[in-house]
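Service request form, structural biology core

Requester: graduate student, group of Dr. S.
Request type: structure prediction, single chain
Budget code: on file
Notes: please return the result as structure tokens.

Sequence provided:
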Amino acid sequence: MSTISNTPDAPVINPSISAEDIQGLLQIVDLATQRGAFKAAELGQIGQIFDKVSAFLMSIAAQQKPATPPVPEVQTVTPIPMNIPPSQGLPLQYQGGPTPTFLNKG
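Core staff response, request fulfilled:
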């Protein structure tokens, strides 16, 4: 029979459990239920505990989400000056060819 030693050389274990660990347990319970590991009379109690733990995980996830989404950073844009002389720009009047039907005032 083995005994537990409280010597200073024994490693200190800090037990911890994460939300991912609990989610893994829920998956194990779900899989065991699908495979028929529980008796029918036990399923009601198992389902209640499963629902409680699921609700607990959902509340943890809601607390970890930021309350408001981050505001995107606004960048200012400096306009590029358009120094195009009128002689090189687009024509202001229709030049040449038949008059398009939308310009006819008929």
